[in-house]
Amino acid sequence: MMVLRCTALLLLFNGVIAEPLGVAEPQHVLQSWGKVATPRNLHGRFLHITDVHPDEFYKVHTSTGKDDACHRGKGASGTYGAETSDCDSPFSLVNATFDWIQANLKDQIDFIIWTGDSARHDSDEKIPRSRDQVLGTNRWLANKFSDVFANPDGKGLSIPVIPNLGNNDILPHNIMFPGPNKWLRYYTDIWRRFIPEEQRHSFEYGGWFYVEVIPNKLAVFSLNTLYLFDRNAAVDNCVNPSEPGFKQLEWLRIQLGFMRDRGMKAIIMGHVPPARTAGKQLWDETCWQKYTLWLRQYRDVVTGAVWGHMNVDHFFLQDSKEIQRDKLSGGEADSVAIREAMEDDMSVQSKADYLLELRCDWSKLSKPALSANGADQDNKKKKHKKPDPWSERYQLSLVSPSVVPNFFPTLRVFEYNISGLEKNPVWSDALGQSGHSTLEEDEERLELRDTLTSEPELETEDRSQRAQIEKKKKGRKGKKPKAPNPMIPDPPAKSAPPGPAYSPQPLTLTGYTQYFANLTYINNDMTVDGGGGDGDEGASHADAWSPWPNWVQRWREGKHRNREPKNAKPKPREFEFEVEYSTFDDKMYDLADLTVGSFVELAYRIGRGCAGEDGVRLGAEGGADGDEAEANPKLDSDSDSDSDFDSDAEVEAEAEGKKKKKKKREAEKAWLHFLQHAFVSTVEKKDLKKLY
């Protein structure tokens, strides 16, 4: 008895409560935290935020002119930003944006895609950017994500945040030397809360990594597009094994293969998109060729691709028929199209020209074999064409507009199919540490492993040095790289069904909702006539639009340039984002989902209005559009015909003419609707028509 009492006292002393004999205690995974977070389920939504461009020097009611950049002078810059201008974002806009996210989205999304450009532009020669400024605003935004999406116990994140490097997140902008380098080491520390521990070596080496946002089901791949970007004068191409672009795409090829082996799917994200038209491009051509081939071969794995950088809301298609194998090994293709590199500071007119080129590229699309719901749209199968019912020839890129108010500030919330995944284990933060850091802490961690690299040591934006680097790159252009034949991935098995990017299934992107903040109304500084009043007229999306010539200027002063605020002291309204449009109920877009086929059908409708020299839309083979050609067959001139037949033919011709005019009107409506979204509802239709 004494032994039993002593044993009981010992157990109580150690905090152990005895259970009745014979009752098995269920086993639990040991938790490293004192408090267990509330379990969460998948919502089937994620947030895309891009191009925030915080500017610590922004001042309210200063000039939006090129020499002032909302830093000095007197003018119309508002409390939350100077909409439709080239000024950057005030901190008030960033704070209000995160407050709105916390109040409206925090508990409704599964992960966040953050595609870079988290520092101000190099637009003010009187205040050149410094290393501390660029890293400081990036660190500030990283801390904001850590605060808003912290676990209830304050340890770790509640959902994954996947960051990405923008071309303005380094010095000088656009220029990043091969890694490892100091900038990659800085961001390894700033983003240590977001980059999985097992991926940090990959990121520090080249700036690329991935996160399994749904364990064993879905991964998000964050590409370092600075090594693919044609404007980066410190690198060359993606065919020379010594180039970081080559290494990154080899890494992507191998990792997508692992995803396929594990039965997983992937979303691709990056800052600079692989935009490419007949006359313009953003990526080096060899990088575009290899990336497009990879996505073609892994079309059963990749569910979609989202990008930032361009500030214009749009989409584009990559055509795998444009892959030229000679380019993949550094050789010259038989027919080489000369494309201009897109400028960073494109005017709206330049952006409109780019969109018009996209439209004319889409005019060459064949009518989709299947509608969005998979129904056959053409009962007459054309024997000379190989069927592509799911549009697997193409890949889709979705470019989101920005937070920085070059138009209006925006956020985009995607939705995806989680059928059968509702109870799937969700991502959990295994790190459980504070996400806050300071520059001094970063430097202390870095000083012991800081090594010399081939990159120049720059503490401020040095334009002359950037020009020297670009000049050296031009001198290397004529040298053909010695490249091995690429290892081409295997395509999906012939028996494999179309992947989630092509056929609705679990993890297919189903739609998105585009949010915007109408700063004209919120800032409450202007009236339509520029005078006093209560300013309620400002609620209109495109009110008081500035005279047309402002659009073609390289630096845009915005819709309120040369106007005085109605109040000396700002009196802003309550800040909020509202829905601009949603693909779920946009009747003009009429998208059943975000599969490639849905967008091929939309692009086909928009492209019908881009006419050839004879005024007739060109089809995929350069002839007239298939529908119109078949509906208006040539009559045999040798055949007998009477007057009744001639009369019938005239009636048919007249009916066909009306049909063509109707199709043209429908195409123009779709095109104007596309442009309206592209510029975030800041341009009136009468002005949109002046863009083409």
Automatic annotation (TrEMBL):
Q: Name one GO molecular function term.
A: phosphoric diester hydrolase activity
For this UniProt record, the keywords arranged alphabetically read as follows: Glycoprotein, Hydrolase, Membrane, Signal, Signal-anchor, Transmembrane, Transmembrane helix, Vacuole
Q: Which reaction does it catalyse?
A: [phosphate](n+1) + n H2O = (n+1) phosphate + n H(+)
Quote the biased-composition stretches of kind Basic and acidic residues, using this chain's numbering: 461-470
Domain Calcineurin-like phosphoesterase span(s) in chain numbering: 45-310
Membrane-topology descriptor: Single-pass type II membrane protein
Renumbered to this chain, the Basic residues biased-composition regions fall at 471-482
Q: Where is the composition biased (Pro residues)?
A: 483-503
Which residues lie in Acidic residues bias regions? 638-654
Q: Where in the cell is it found?
A: Vacuole membrane
EC number from the UniProt entry: 3.6.1.10
Q: What is its main location?
A: membrane
- InterPro entries per the UniProt record, alphabetical: ASMase/PPN1_MPP (IPR041805), Calcineurin-like_PHP (IPR004843), EndopolyPtase_N1 (IPR012358), Metallo-depent_PP-like (IPR029052)
Q: Which Pfam families match?
A: Metallophos
Question: Where in this protein does the record put region Disordered?
Answer: 369-390, 432-504, 619-664
Signal sequence bounds:
1-18
**One CC-aspect GO term:** fungal-type vacuole
Q: Which GO terms describe its biological process?
A: polyphosphate catabolic process
What is this protein's function per UniProt?
A: Catalyzes the hydrolysis of inorganic polyphosphate (polyP) chains of many hundreds of phosphate residues into shorter lengths.
Q: Which family does it belong to?
A: Belongs to the endopolyphosphatase PPN1 family.
State the protein's name: Endopolyphosphatase
